[in-house]
């Protein structure tokens, strides 16, 4: 019975996600869903990405969190439209939440919508939002065992941002082993080694994302 209930929830979500996706496509809007653990540095990566792309692209952001609006306030300081979604306890965003938030944006005036999901390695990836790309953020400080422990996130993502590489020398992480494990799960995934704190690697990631925006428009 529990499996049937879960299947029903996911099926209902997928129907709304398909409607979201159709709306995104109709506006020529690229949408990415950023996922990762609390503390992985998702918001800082997002801030640095905005700083690079905001001069050439029209962006908007949806911030997902369980209760607070702290991340949305951080994004507001970068001068892009942002909508906060508080899930009230749920460990993920769903398509219905995103559909409601879209009403606050002029989608014709945007080229890239970035959704930062609730910090969690499991739940968010199970709920399709209608996005074009799923992006995983993994911090060096989390260790190199996470891909094999939580393979679904890396299997479903089109790119993984390995963040906080400036701290690599202070950990026991084997970067080569980490990347091999990620590619065992998903051989087609793009891997970006970055430090959101120092800015290392953010340019390469932002250039790749900008290319994806152009591909969506073209």
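^ Assign residues to that structure.
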């Amino acid at each position: 019975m529990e499996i049937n209930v879960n299947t029903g929830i996911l099926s209902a979500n997928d129907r709304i996600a398909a409607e979201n996706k159709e709306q995104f496509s109709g506006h020529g809007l690229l949408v990415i869903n950023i996922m990762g653990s609390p503390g992985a540095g998702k918001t800082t990566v997002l801030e640095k990405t905005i700083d690079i792309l905001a001069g050439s692209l029209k962006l908007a952001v949806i911030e997902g969190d369980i209760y607070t609006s702290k991340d949305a306030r951080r994004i507001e300081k970068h001068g892009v439209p942002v909508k906060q979604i508080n899930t009230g306890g749920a460990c993920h965003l769903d398509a219905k939440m995103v559909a409601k938030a879209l009403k606050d944006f002029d989608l014709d005036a945007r080229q890239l919508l970035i959704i930062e999901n609730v910090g969690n390695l499991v739940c968010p990836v199970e709920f399709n939002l209608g996005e074009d790309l799923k992006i995983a953020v993994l911090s060096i400080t989390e260790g190199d065992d996470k891909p094999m422990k939580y393979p679904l996130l890396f299997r479903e993502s089109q790119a993984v941002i390995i963040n906080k590489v400036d701290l690599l020398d202070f950990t026991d992480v084997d970067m080569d082993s980490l990347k091999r494990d990620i590619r065992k799960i998903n051989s087609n995934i793009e891997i970006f080694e970055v430090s959101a704190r120092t800015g290392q690697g953010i340019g390469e990631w932002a250039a790749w994302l900008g290319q994806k925006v152009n591909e969506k428009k073209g």
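Strands lie at 30-36, 59-65, 82-86, 112-116, 133-139, 159-163, 190-193.
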